[in-house]
Each structure stands twice: as structure tokens, then as C-alpha cells.
Amino acid sequence: MRRPPLIDGLQYDRWSEKIFRQLREGGVDALHVTIAYHETFRELAANIAAWNHWFERYPDLIFQGFSADDVERAQESGRTAIFFGAQNPSIIEDEIGLVPVLHRLGLRFMQLSYNNQSLLATGCYEAEDAGLTRMGREVIAEMNRVGMVVDVSHSAERSTLEAIEHSTRPIAITHANPASWHPARRNKSERVLRALAESGGVLGFSAYPHHLKNGSACSLDEFCAMIAHTAELMGVERLALGTDLCQDQPDSVVEWMRSGRWTKRIDYGEGSAAAPGFPEMPAWFRDNRDFGNIAAGLRKVGMVEGEVAAILGGNWLRFFASSFGPASAL
Amino acid sequence: MRRPPLIDGLQYDRWSEKIFRQLREGGVDALHVTIAYHETFRELAANIAAWNHWFERYPDLIFQGFSADDVERAQESGRTAIFFGAQNPSIIEDEIGLVPVLHRLGLRFMQLSYNNQSLLATGCYEAEDAGLTRMGREVIAEMNRVGMVVDVSHSAERSTLEAIEHSTRPIAITHANPASWHPARRNKSERVLRALAESGGVLGFSAYPHHLKNGSACSLDEFCAMIAHTAELMGVERLALGTDLCQDQPDSVVEWMRSGRWTKRIDYGEGSAAAPGFPEMPAWFRDNRDFGNIAAGLRKVGMVEGEVAAILGGNWLRFFASSFGPASAL
């Protein structure tokens, strides 16, 4: 019997042979990677070209994933399947017709907004959230049609609830934690988490310090107890990981993530003027070789093997299988 | 037994339900369509979005073709497989990495130049032809690797010969005729045609009046006699059709084709100030229902059924099968 899949629901590392080898050492079968924050369509194409270059250069370590079957292919060939996603709909600019074009290129996740208001929805840092826009409703329907996952990790509360409601297919919060555990703007209310679970969506737990109680000092026990608690609210089958690992990135990258080209000042986002850079990851999750720590922590808080396997990849795999193809194939 | 495939190697019509229905009436199984003349990458994406819209709207008439197998699928389902191509490398701008991105989107043909000098090669209207550029050699190698056909229909003589020589896979002249029959700048020398044939490439005969002896008045007999004569030079297995049909296009489109954004004046190309628009197609090829005329004409000049079938589609099908996949699969 094949071992259960190990899948991470979001990373944005400074990609290198070292990291690709760590993915293999850590036994990561599939990974959703962010390929755009504030990029235009043209800039995204350049990012895809860079990924193609890595695929060509490291064919024994990684390959591009298009369907859930590629997770099995990854396991069989001892490689990591890389699935593309974007944290911002800037990549479709003002053209709904780019949704199927990007799906053809393998884009499998797209956030409706990144912190700010987008053409589609409101971001979690805006003061006012008017919910989905006219274009937002149209684009969600198109994403549903082709099989591109609606991700609302950085969206505001009302927009998130409306996206869950409006989408005809389950959506994802690829990387966030419950706000009841740590009240960050990026973390999600119980109302959102309950609606997500009821609609069949998936929550990927984040190990990014700004989303953790006690930040970088958060203990593995605290993190895993929070997961166990969330399982009571949402059900284990709705839970997964989205570590938000940003390994080896220089601080200029977190500046780009936060400030893009939309402000002339520096927006510190979850950071502050005193701590403007990337925070230090918790000791129990430094890189892709550390998923075993999380598995051990989940066992320690009382989860049985099947639950641990579901959270570490089984739930994402099932979600991938029902999400990445056209609606007509369902 | 399945009937032989009917494949046209180039059209740029003003697409409409009427034309898609004529493709079915005419029994056209596959078609290489031009989706860009002077477009940038971003503009090309909008053109693909327009095609996606047609595919969604007329699924019983057309679908996008990606591999030679799709020709069989077209025959089985009574539809026309549409294969994308560009007449100009403007679509990759200055970035070789866009070649695999566009291949993923289904681009199966790309001309190295369109009348003018490009970043890759010289066009047939330039006074000087310095042959392939540095980037041209790199891009041909990349096209060879992924399975995108090098098309030199609008390229100049030396660039064309160097492309045939440099390409590790057979290339195509999708739409042109022998210059010895009608000495247009767009038609090809015997030297080029011989080199193309020896390398395993394919020539698609054009029915566009500026490429025909006597223009719009060219008779079917003259056209088919020219094909029979070219068969003696190149071998029947190297010959196909590329009608260059531009059905229902307004004259503003031929202006875009010729002048793009590269001149402030009007460039008349193959036309003239006295006849600046699209020429009238010959009486024996008005639209996609007229391929039977060409088949009859080829029989009349003495071709046997197998030869007619090869020219009307069999040769393109074999070429598609060996050209559209990655070199590593050969």
C-alpha cells in the first residue's frame, strides 16, 4: 500500500536546488506554490518561464502538477509535484477570459484579494468590506467552470462569506489560522470557518509566525492543540496544512508582498516599523524536512493515525481531485 | 476504414458561426489558424480568450487541437480541430521562456518573421537578409525541444535556408507557392523548396491571389498543374495545402497585417495603392466548402487517389504527429 501523501497548501520560498532537495528529504509529494503577488499577466508569464526553467533543470526532483493524479505520479517517481497559485487576481487584470488561459497554464488557485480591495473582492486590511464585486461574481463562476480554486486567505470577512456562498464548488483558505486562537487580521472567525466547513472547503493551517499565538515562540504543542480544537469546530476532513513557508527570502520580498506598487510609503502589513522583515519561523518548522514534527505533535494531542494522515495530505488530495478539473466533468 | 483527413495549413478568417458551419459542410477535419500578426504576448492572450469563447459557444462544431490525435477525435466526433499558430514572433517579445508557455497554450506554429526583420530572422520584404539572428538560433532550438513548428512562409531566402539547416526537426512553409511559377516575393525559390523537401519539411500551397499566376483569375487547372509540377521537384509526400483563406475580413485587417504598428505610412505589401484591399479569391476556392474542387483538379492533372489524399491532409497529419510533441518523446 502506498504511504499517505504529504501535501503543503502554500509556500513562497526563494527556490533553489537546496530547497528542492529538502522537499525530497522531507517526503513532500505535492506543494501549492505562490507564483504571483502583484504581478500583471505578462509578469506572471515570466514567473512561469522561471519555473519551467527549474522543471527543466531539476527533473529528478520536481515537476509541474496539473491534476490530482500528479500527486500519485510524484509518489511513484520520488519527486514533488508543484501546483501553481496566485495570491492576487492582478494577474487576470480586467479580463475574465484570462481565467481559462491561466488554468491551461496550470494555475490551480487564485486569491480573490490580497490585503487590499481588488477588482473582485475586499482584502483583510481594508476598513470597509462591501463584499464581492460584480466582476468578482463573474470570475468565481468562471473559476468554478474551469476548475480553479477560489482562495480567500487574505480576503476580508464579508467578501469571504460571500465567496463561500456564491461559489458552486468548495473553496479554500490555503493558509490561515482561527482568529479565536490568535486574533490577527489574517486569521479567520469561527463564523467563516464554520461556513467553510459546511460548504466542503478546506483550511490550511499556517506556521507563519504572525498567524501564531506567541509568534515565533509558539510551541508545537500550542499549534497542535489549536488544530485539534479546530477539528471539533470544522471536522478533521476539512483540515490541512498551508505552512506559508517563505524560506531564504530576503526582506525585500516581504516588502514587495506588502507594498507592491500600490503605495509610495512602506506598508508594514503584519509587521511593524520596528520589525519590518520576515519573522523567524518557529523552531519546530524551519523547512520542508520538519513535517514529521507536526505529525508527531498531532499524535501527542491525541489524534489517531488516520486523522494525522488526512491533515498532512489526504484532505488536500481529495480536494485537489474534486477541484482541479472542469465542472462539466463532475 | 476512416476516410482520409482533410487539413488546411493556414487560414485567418473573420470567424463566425457561418464559417464554422462551412468548415463542417466542407468536411475540414483540422485547420491551422493564425491567431497573431503583430500582437504582443498580452494581446495574444486576449486573442486566445476570444477563441476560448468560440470553443465554448460552438462545441459541436469546433474544438482546440493540441496533438495529431485530435484530428482523429475531430473525425470521430464530426467537428473541426483548430490548431493555433502565429505569423510573427512578436508574441514572444524578447523572452525565449515564452516559447514553452505558448506551447502549453497550444501554439503549434510560429513564423520566424513576417515580411520585416524580426528579432529572429529576416522577412521577405527586406532589402538585406543577414540570416538567422543569435536569438533566432536559440528560439529555433527551443521550438524544436518543445514541439512548435518553425514556419518560414514570410521569411527571406537566406533566413529560410538557414532555418531549414539549423532546425533539428523538419520545418514548414505553411502557405506559399513556387516562385518559378509566379515570381512573388512571398513565393519560394527552387533552392528553398528542394532544401525543405530534403529536410522532411512540408509546403502548403496557397490559394491567395497574390501568390497565384494570373491572380484571382488563376484557373484551377493552372493551380493543379503547378502542384503536379512541384511534386516532381519535392515529392508528393512533402506537399499539402495552406490556402491562406481570409474569408469575410474587412480591408482594415489586411492593413493591420501589412502595416501593424511599424510604420506611419501605409505599406501595401503584395497589394498596391490602386488595389489596397483583400483580392478576390479564385472562383474555385471561395470558402471551406470548395476543397472538393481542388481534389477534382488534382485528379484531372493525373494524380491518383492516394496522392490526392496525401496532399489534402495525409501529409499534414503525418507532419503534425511528428512535430507537435516534445523532442524527448521522439
List strands and helices in order, with pairings.
The structure is a homodimer of 330-residue chains.
Chain A: E1 7-11, H1 17-25, E2 30-36, H2 41-57, E3 62-64, H3 69-77, E4 80-86, H4 98-104, E5 107-111, H5 134-146, E6 149-151, H6 157-166, E7 172-173, H7 190-198, E8 202-205, H8 220-234, E9 239-241, H9 251-259, H10 291-300, H11 305-323
Helix pairs in contact in A: 6-7, 8-10, 10-11
Q: Can you walk through the features of this model?
A:
Chain A has helices at 17-25, 41-57, 69-77, 98-104, 134-146, 157-166, 190-198, 220-234, 251-259, 291-300, 305-323, and strands at residues 7-11, 30-36, 62-64, 80-86, 107-111, 149-151, 172-173, 202-205, 239-241. Chain A has 330 residues and is an alpha/beta fold. The first copy, chain A, has one domain (89-323): TIM Barrel (Alpha-Beta Barrel). In chain A, the strands form two sheets. In chain A, strands 1, 2, 3, 4, 5 and 6 form a six-stranded parallel beta sheet that branches. Chain A has a three-stranded parallel beta sheet with strand order 7-8-9. In chain A, strand 3, helix 3 and strand 4 form a beta-alpha-beta unit. The mean pLDDT of chain A is 97. Chains A and B meet through helix 2 and helix 4 of A and helix 2 and helix 4 of B.
